[in-house]
Amino acid sequence: MVINRGYSSCSAMERAYSRLFRNIYTEEKECVILYLGDHDPSGLDMIRDIRNRLNEFDRYAILLDKFEVKHIALTTEQVYKYQPPENFAKLKDPRAKGYVAKFGDKSWECDALNPQTLTELLKTEIEKVIDVNLYQSTMSKENDMIDTLLKTSEELKAKGY
How far is residue 17's CA from residue 127's CA, in Å, rounded to a whole number? Predict the structure, then answer.
């Protein structure tokens, strides 16, 4: 998980590339990056930026077209559906001219959505890309192990350890 305020630093992108490389090339896993960002000139441009900058690290085109950046929020459709409060688009942003031409001079912040809405959007998208049965099985085993550890801890305490 990478959380940013603005564009990612070069070091954050390099760490993300290393994780992608390990998962795609070494472990042969499919990778999907779930992107949540503001509906403003920079927020929408970051989707392009993430793809391009990760590919810049990929000197040998190992990951090319083997990962997806999926725009989860805040989409234009979600702006109409959830009607978050409007802001004025930042006209000093170098990407503002193209944004204003397409969307007008209003922008919207992703974190203005209800946290429950964001949780549901993420849950829906995560369930599309994982093996839900394997996840539930793994969580069940993990919970069993936690119960065993707690029981063992209580038994040891009762014996004075």
Answer: 23
pTM for this prediction: 0.76
**Cβ–Cβ under 8 Å, residues 89 and 100:** yes
Quote the tokens at residue 21.
């490389």
Token pair for residue 90? 């930042």
Q: Which of 24, 8, 7 is nearest to 58 (CA)?
A: 24
3-class secondary structure, 106: strand
- Classify the C-alpha dihedral 55-57-58-63 as positive or negative: negative
The answer to whether 35 and 49 are in contact (CB under 8 A) is no
Which amino acid, 145? M
Q: How many Å apart are CA 4 and CA 12, to the nearest integer?
A: 9
Q: What is the pLDDT of residues 80-112, one digit of tens each?
A: 999 999 999 999 999 999 999 999 999 999 999
Burial (CB count within 10 angstroms: exposed 0-12, middle 13-18, buried 19+), residue 83? exposed
- Collapsed DSSP state (helix, strand, coil) of residue 84: coil
